[in-house]
Amino acid sequence: MTETLETKSLTLNYGDSNIIENLDLSIPMNEITVLIGANGCGKSTLLRSIARLLKPKHGSVLLDGQDIFKLSTKQVAKKLSILPQSPVAPEGLTVLQLVKQGRYPHQSWRKQWTEKDEEIVLNSLKATGVDHLQDKPVDELSGGQRQRAWIAMTLAQDTDIILLDEPTTYLDLTHQIEILDLLFELNQQQKRTIIMVLHDINLACRYADHIITVRDRGVFQQGRPEEIMTKTLVKHVFDLDCKMTNDPIFGTPLCIPFGKGRIIS
Amino acid sequence: MKNLKTIRLLQNKVSFLLDIKASKKLTLISIIALAVFLFSASFGDSFINPIKVLQVLIGNGSDFDQLIIVDFRMPRIFIAAFAGMALAVAGAILQGIIKNPLASPDLIGISAGGGAAVVGFLAMFSDSNHSLTVSIEWLPLAGFIGATIVGLIVYIFAWKDGVTPTRLVLIGIGVSAFMQAITTMLMIIGPIYQASEANKWITGSVKSADWSQVQIVVPLILILLLITFFITRQLNVQELGDDTAASLGQSVQKTRLFLLLLSSSLVASAISFAGAIGFVGLMAPHIARRIVGPSFGVLIPTSAAIGAILVMVADIIGRTAFNPLEVPAGVFTAAIGAPYFIYLLFRNPRK
Amino acid sequence: MSIIYLTNIQAHSIERRVQLYMILKNNFSKTIALIVGTLLLLLCMGVSIVYGYANTSIQTTIESFTQFNQSNEHIIIQNVRIPRVLIATCVGASLAITGVLMQTLTKNPLASPGILGINAGAGFAVVFAMIFFHVSNLQSFAWIAFLGATIAALSVYGISSAGRDAVTPVKITLAGAAISALFASLTQGLLATNEAALEQVLFWLAGSVQGRKLEILLSVLPYLIIGWIAALLISSKMNILALGDDVARGLGLRLGFMKLMVGLIVILLAGGSVAIAGPIGFVGIVVPHFARKFVGTDHRWLIPMAALLGGILLLLADVTARYIIMPQEVPVGVMTAMIGTPFFIYLARKGGKK
C-alpha cells in the first residue's frame, strides 16, 4: 500500500524555459485530486513528471520516500499507472487484448496468464462495464466505451495510484459524466488514489476531494474545492471574472463566468 | 472469452492464453507454406512431377532427378523460404515500432546499406583483371555487415532524447538515398561486371544459392526467429504508444533499440544471401494482420509463413515464366507488392 | 538510380519551425536577396565554365565567343562547358521550383518531384526502350524519359483521385511511393537480366549534366520556360493552397483546377529536367527549405528564390563532381545525394519532439 507521493524542489523545463519551478507538493492518498489551470500552465507537464514520463531538470518525485527515477520502470509500474491523452490502440485490437496488457508489469514471458491475471482482468472489465464488449475491436467503440476500455487496462495494472491526463477532453457531456462517475466509484469502492487533469472547473469541483491550481510555474492554492474556490482564485488562475455559487444538485462550488450572452430574467 | 483457451502447464510455471481461431488459421497457412516448399522443387527449366519430387526427398528417386532437385533447386528454395520468413518478421517488428502499417524494412536504409556494402566489397576485392581476389562466398558477410552498420547509423542519427517513429523513418529515407548514391557511384567507377553483379543483388535473387549458404542462413535465421518469439510481449506493449508502454513499466528506448537491432539482423541475414527483395516486409505482416489480428504472438509466425510463401512463389515465377531467362524474385515481389500497396491505401481512408 | 520512398509522415513540426524563422522580413531586403542570388548564380556559372580538368580563364571564355579559333580550349568551352552550365542552371532551377510546389501540394516538407514517380518512370521508360527497341542515342532518351515521367505522374495522379475521397496530400505521397518503387524494381529487374543494357544506361540513370549537347537543352527549353512562367503565375494562389484544402475552398480557390495545374507544371519542369539530365534527387527537397529560410513562405518570393538557389546548388555540385575524383567524374546525381543527405538528416532531426 503506497503511503506517500510527493515532489521535492521539482523543476521541469521545456527547452530553455522552466514550466514548473522548485515545487514541493504532497498528493493526498485514497482521494481524487484534480489539477486545474489555464492552457499551457504546466498541469499536464506536472502530471507526466509524477508519472515518470518526464525527467525533471532539478528536484525529484518521491514515491514512499524513494525517487521514482532511481527506481526501475517496472517497480514504479506496479504502484502507479497513467492514462495518457488520446491513447491510440492498434487497429483490430480487441478490448480483452488491450486490458490484458495491463498485467504486463506483473508477468514474464512464460507466465502470461496466471489465475490472478485472469481474475483481475475479468474484474476490471466488469468494474468498467465493458465486459460485454470484450471481443470487440477497440477502434470500433464509441468515445465513452473506448475510454472505459483504457481505464479497464489501467485498472488491470492493479496500482494504488492512477493518473489520467485529460480523460474527458474529447468526449461529449454524457460520456464525460460516464467516465467521471466511473472514476468516482473506483475511488469510493476500491480506495484507489486518482489524480487527473481536467479542463472543466465545475466538474472538477463536483468530483474532486482535493484541487490543485497550477499557475506561474507552481501551485497557487490547493485544498478542498469548497474551501478554496472563490472568484478571486478563478480571476487569478484563469484571468476570468465570474460569480461563484453552489451547484443546485451537489452543493459543490459552481463557477458562472461573466461575459456576453442572452440575459433572460 | 469465446475462442480463447487458457493453457496452464507445469504447475502454473507456464501459462498463456491461446486464441484458437487465430491458431487454426496459422496452422492452415503453415501447411500451405510447407506444401509450396515441397512442390516448388517441381518447377524450373524442366517440370518434374511432384510425386518424383517426393521420391527424391525420401531417397528413392533417380540420380538425375536427385541432382536437379537436391543440388540445384532445394538450396534456393530453402533460402527463398527463410529469407521470406526473416523479411516478413522484420517487417512485422518494424511496423510495431513505427506504429504505421505502411512501414517496411526497405524504408530505414538497411537494404540500401547492404547494397552499398556489397558493391564496396566487389570494388575493393577486385584486381585489375576484374576478377575477385577473395572468394565470392564472403559477399553475404559484406552485405550483412553493411546492413547492420547502416541500421545502427540510422538509429544513432535518429536519436535525440530517444527515437520517435517519425524521425526514424525520415532519417532512414535520407540514409537510404545516400547509400543508393554511393552504390551507384561505385558501380559507375568500377568495371561493368561488378555493376551487373551488384545490380542483381540489389534486385533480389536467390539464383546462386548452394548448400553451404543454406548451412549458414538457416540456423542464423532460426535463432533470430526464436529470439523474436520470446520478445513478442514487448512488441505488443510498444504498439500501445510510448506513454502507455512506459506506464506499464517497459524500458521503452532500450526495448526499441533491441527490437531495431533484431529487425536489422533479420533483414541483413535475408538480404545477404537473397539480395534486397523488396515489399515482403511490407506485404506479409499486413496480410497476416488481416487474417489473425494485431497480437504479435500469432502475428509473427503468420507473417513468417506468408513471407516464405511470397518469396518462394516469386522465385518460382521468376524461374519459369520467362524461360530461359531468369528474372530475379525481387521483380515479382515488387510487381505484386506495389499494386497491393496501392490497394492498401484506398482501403484505409483514415491514414 | 536514386529513388526515394516517402510515406505519409506528419513532418509538420519541421515546417512550423522553419516557417517561424525567416531571415529577411521586408520586401526591400527580399528584393536585394533576389538580386544577390542572381549575381551569385552568374558567379557560379562563371566558375563552372572556367574550372575543371582543363582550366581556362574568363578571358579565354569571352574570346571563344568573339574570336572563335579551333583551339582545344575554345572547343571545350563551347561544346562542353557552356552546355553543361546552362543545363545545370535550368535543371537546378526547375527541380527547385517543383520541390516548392510539391511540398506545398502534399503538405509534406520532405516532398520532391521524385514522389510523383517521375524519376522512376523516366528510368523505366529509358531502360525499356533500350532493351526492347534498341534505342541508344541521348536525344531519344530525352523524349522517352519525358514520356515515362509523364505516364508515371499521370498514373499517380489517377490513382490518388480514385478511391473514396478527393486527391489528398496523403494519397499522392503514398501512391507516388508505390509507383516509384514499382518502376524502380522493374527497372532493376530488366537490368539484372541484361548486362549490356546496364553498361549503357548506368551513367544516365545516375543523373548527370555532363555529356549532353546543347541541342537537347534547347529542344526541351520551351517546356521549361512555360513551366517557369506558369509557376510564377500561380504563385499567389499557391499561398492559398498552402492553408489547407478546406480553408482554400472556403476562400474560393478552385482546388481541382489548381492541383491539376501544379501537376502539369511539375510534369513539364521535372519531366523536362529528367529528360535532359536523368534523375537527380535532393535538389527538390532541400533547396525549398533554404529558400524558405531566406524569404519565408510567400510563394511569390519563394519560387524565384528557390529557382536561383537550385541553379546555384546544382552548379556547385557539378563543379565538385568534377574535382572530387579527378580525372574521373562523379555523376552529379550522386553528388547532390551526398551533399543533400546531411541537410536532409539535419532537417529531419530538427523536427523536435514529434
What does this structure look like?
Chain A folds into two domains: 1-79 and 160-174 and 187-264, P-loop containing nucleotide triphosphate hydrolases (Rossmann fold), CATH 3.40.50.300; 91-158, no CATH class. In chain A, 32% of the residues lie in helices and 26% in strands. Chain A has nine helices and twelve strands. Chain A has helices at 43-50, 73-77, 95-101, 115-127, 143-156, 173-190, 201-207, 225-228, 231-238, and strands spanning 5-14, 17-27, 32-36, 58-63, 66-67, 80-83, 161-165, 193-197, 210-215, 218-223, 242-246, 253-257. Chain A has a six-stranded mixed β-sheet with strand order 6-7-8-3-9-10, sandwiched between helices. With 351 residues, chain B is mainly α. Chain B is built from 13 helices and two strands. Chain B has helices at 20-39, 50-58, 63-98, 110-124, 139-158, 165-189, 192-203, 211-238, 242-247, 252-274, 280-292, 296-320, 329-347, and strands spanning 4-9, 14-19. Chain B has a two-stranded antiparallel ribbon with strand order 1-2. In chain B, helix 4 (110-124) packs antiparallel against helix 7, helix 6 (165-189) packs antiparallel against helix 7 and helix 8 packs antiparallel against helix 12. The longest helix of chain B has 36 residues, at 63-98. The mean pLDDT of chain B is 81. Chain C is mostly helical and 354 residues long. The longest helix of chain C has 35 residues, at 72-106. Chain C is globular. The chains are: A alpha/beta (265), B mainly alpha (351), C mainly alpha (354). At the B-C interface, helix 6, helix 7 and helix 13 of B face helix 7, helix 8 and helix 15 of C.
> What class, by secondary structure content of chain C?
mainly alpha
Give the CA-CA distance, first to last residue of chain B.
31 Å
SSE string of chain B, helices as H and strands as E: EEHHHHHHHHHHHHH
H and E order of chain C:
HHHHHHHHHHHHHHH
| C-alpha-based Rg of chain C, rounded | 20 Å
CATH class of chain B: Mainly Alpha
What is the topology, as strand order, of the major beta sheet of chain B? 1-2
Classified in CATH, the superfamily of chain B is ABC transporter involved in vitamin B12 uptake, BtuC
State the domain count of chain B.
1
Total number of β-strand segments of chain C? Answer: 0
What does the main sheet of chain B amount to?
Answer: 2 strands, antiparallel
Helix content of chain C: over 70%
How many angstroms does the end-to-end distance of chain C come to?
Answer: 31 Å
What's the total helix number of chain C? 15
